[in-house]
Known about the structure:
By secondary structure, this protein is mostly beta strands. It has one domain: Calycin beta-barrel core domain (Lipocalin). The chain contains 1 helix and 11 strands. It has one helix at residues 4-12, and strands spanning 14-24, 29-41, 47-58, 67-78, 81-86, 95-102, 107-112, 114-116, 119-129, 132-140, 145-154. A 10-stranded antiparallel β-barrel has the order 1-2-3-4-5-6-7-9-10-11.
Amino acid sequence: MTRPNQDLFQFFRGNWRLTRAVLDGAQRTVAQASGVAGFVAGSGAGELLFEERGQLLLTASVNGRPIPFTRRYRYVLRDDLVDVFFADGTDNGKSYQSYRWSPSRQALLPCAVHTCIADCYSSQYRLADGDHFEMQTTIQGPHKSQVLQTIFARMP
Length: 156
């Protein structure tokens, strides 16, 4: 990528299928999710609006019913930086995380994390190819110890 801002904007823009595994501190799968996600241009320069929605199934669920989920974020791309803001819920408009583009690793690496009470959320994105990327979110603290591994595949 020669111009990270524009290249990342074009890469993420569009619709994606997602699959997610939620692992506990012992690396056991405690939940799985599937759904769709999309990035659309926002009103500002270098702005993408992200929404994901799908179904989460807890591994230990007694009734086996999936739990629907939806989440929205606003991505602001500036040069080799990406700032992510909540775009729904009680934290709407607040900063969530920030990343810096690493061309050598083809990845967005964390440069600012999110703290919720005392738990720290840190993510990184790895662009696998033009139609796939992976996001890994690590949550560590006194209340949670989890890793969320999400694979996104571009939809036609």
